[in-house]
What we know:
Layout: E1 5-12, H1 16-26, E2 31-33, E3 38-41, E4 47-51, E5 63-68, H2 72-81, E6 86-93, E7 97-103, E8 109-115
Parallel strand pairs: 1-4, 5-8
Antiparallel strand pairs: 1-5, 2-3, 3-4, 6-7, 7-8
Amino acid sequence: MKVAGVDHVWFWVSDMDRAVEFYADKLGLSVLRRGDRWTELDGGTVRLGLHGHVDGHAADHGGTAVFLVHDLDAAKAALEERGVEFDEHMGEVSGYARYASFGDPDGNSMQIIEYVSEHG
């Protein structure tokens, strides 16, 4: 099992409008998908995600590197066999993607993601 590459990187933001203004208007990144709690921007070879506040989860500083896989269950099992410890946070964006979260040895946040279909 090998990850297909870095899919996107995302950052927590406390104010989505302010964040989109900074990344789109000031830095000139094109908005690919816009919402109240999630926005994706075209970062060239890697998309940049902005993650707004979610009930029950504080908008921490920092972000997450997300690696693309083609079979989430198989990739998760293979990584667990190699000693990667996943946290309890597995999620799904209905009709879009499934993901699982883990950390590197220094506690940096990582995820693997499998998309339901091709996305832009």
